[in-house]
Amino acid sequence: MVSKNKNPEKDGVSRRSFLQGAGAAAAAAGVARIPETVIAGQNGVATPEVLGPEAESILLKVNGADKKASAPPSTTLLDFLRNDVGVTGPKRVCDRGSCGACTVLLDGQVVDSCSMLAIDAVGKEITTVEGIGTPDNLSRLQKAFIEKDALQCGFCTPGMVVSCTALLEENPKPSRNQIREGLSGNLCRCGTYQNIIEAVEHVSRKGG
Questions:
Q1: What pLDDT does residue 144 have?
Q2: What are phi and psi of 186, to 5 degrees?
Q3: 124 with 106: CB under 8 angstroms?
Q4: Domains of the chain, first to last
Q5: From the first residue on, what is the mean pLDDT of each consecutive set of 10 residues in the chain (208 residues)?
Q6: Using alpha carbons only, what angle is made at residue 76 by residues 157 and 83, rounded to the nearest 5 degrees?
Q7: Can you give the pLDDT at residue 42?
Q8: pLDDT value of residue 138
């Protein structure tokens, strides 16, 4: 017969000791996940450089040329390009990385310039629509946009051209579905998607 006064904690792990052990294990795991750089900073070995809020000198390589201006570290790449160095191809529309009108290439990769800081682009190659072609020297894709009437208001066009250029660089012979996928981050409120797709296909047939 088991006594009612028997203490179950004497026979094994108590609820309190179990919780204490679990808490210690969780704390240890949390410490293990702290980045080494943070721990080093706390020990005085290394500390991160603090920038701002005052303006900093920012030097970027845009379309093959150095562009330098002073701007707060919180300045987005889009604002730096448009307001500080006068590169106005990327457009501000949604300002939250949803429409693709501000699309640029960063080391050949498509990015929304409204969603990254200018200082994060230091040391990288930035290409805007101005670096793809000029009114006097249009790229084959830009010519195809005109021939296929692939624009109306024109606000989405710079971002579309940049994204389509990146698509053709990566895949010179994309299928129609691949073209749609490549344009999935760019919105055209005028609805010229079909003409844009035809422009890309036209260039693809001509050799990229």
A1: 98
A2: -120, 130
A3: yes
A4: 56-131 (3.10.20.30), 133-206 (1.10.150.120)
A5: 50 58 51 44 59 87 97 97 98 95 97 97 98 96 97 96 97 96 95 97 87
A6: 70
A7: 54
A8: 97
Pairwise CA distance, residues 94 & 145, whole Å: 23
On whether the CB atoms of residues 152 and 92 are closer than 8 A, the answer is: no
**CA neighbor of 187 nearest in space, from 103, 123, 114, 111:** 103
C-alpha separations of 138 from 58, 81, 124, 186, 206 in Å: 30, 21, 24, 21, 15
Instruction: Copy the structure tokens of residue 54.
Output: 């005052």
| Mean pLDDT computed over every residue of the chain | 85
Which three-class secondary structure state does DSSP give residue 152? coil
Among 113, 110, 72, 118, CA closest to 94: 113
Region class of 191: left (phi > 0), else alpha (psi between -120 and 50), else beta: left
Contact 167, 136 (CB under 8 A): no
